[in-house]
């Protein structure tokens, strides 16, 4: 576990990922501090998406450590994922789900209880003027 007085809200320590002989991410270490705006820039194939997917727990790392808020992603993924959000490269909308179902499904990914997810989803649809689109 990272020391509690550490500044890094996200800390990568020696992160690595390979696909066979292709090394996608090699020994990446960095700290992203609370309040910083941070982005990965580079050409196609540089490992940007691979790194983000490892940070979010969507892709298993080969080596290294990932800390979110001082907690190792590998030791307590459920706690870490509550502090994360991801805007994917591709739009993720399931055509077979209604607006309400999409919101409830996403809430369930974050272990929000069903009743709370339903209530908050309905509130959000109202806030954004989408009441008529919920079904």
TrEMBL record:
Record-stated family: Belongs to the ABC transporter superfamily.
MF terms in GO: ATP binding; ATP hydrolysis activity
Keywords annotated in UniProt: ATP-binding, Nucleotide-binding, Transport
Protein name: AAA+ ATPase domain-containing protein
Pfam families noted in UniProt: ABC_tran
Protein's UniProt keywords contain Transport: yes
Family matches, as SMART domains: AAA (SM00382)
Taxonomic lineage of the native organism: unclassified sequences, metagenomes, ecological metagenomes
Domain AAA+ ATPase: 34-128
PANTHER family: ABC TRANSPORTER ATP-BINDING PROTEIN, ABC TRANSPORTER ATP-BINDING PROTEIN NATA
Tagged with keyword Transport: yes
InterPro entries (UniProt xref): AAA+_ATPase, ABC_transporter-like_ATP-bd, ABC_transporter_ATP-binding, P-loop_NTPase
């Amino acid at each position: 576990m990272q020391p509690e007085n550490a500044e890094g809200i996200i800390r990568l320590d020696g992160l690595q990922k390979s696909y066979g002989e292709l090394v996608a991410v090699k020994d990446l270490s960095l700290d992203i501090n609370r309040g910083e705006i941070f982005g990965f820039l580079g050409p196609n194939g540089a490992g940007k998406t691979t790194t983000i997917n490892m940070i979010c727990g969507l892709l298993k790392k080969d080596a290294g450590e990932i800390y979110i808020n001082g907690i190792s992603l590998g030791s307590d993924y459920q706690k870490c994922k509550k502090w994360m959000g991801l805007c994917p490269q591709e739009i993720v909308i399931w055509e077979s789900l209604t607006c309400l179902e999409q919101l409830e499904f996403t809430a369930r990914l974050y272990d929000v209880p069903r009743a709370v997810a339903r209530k908050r989803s309905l509130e959000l649809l109202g806030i954004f003027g989408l009441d008529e689109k919920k079904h």
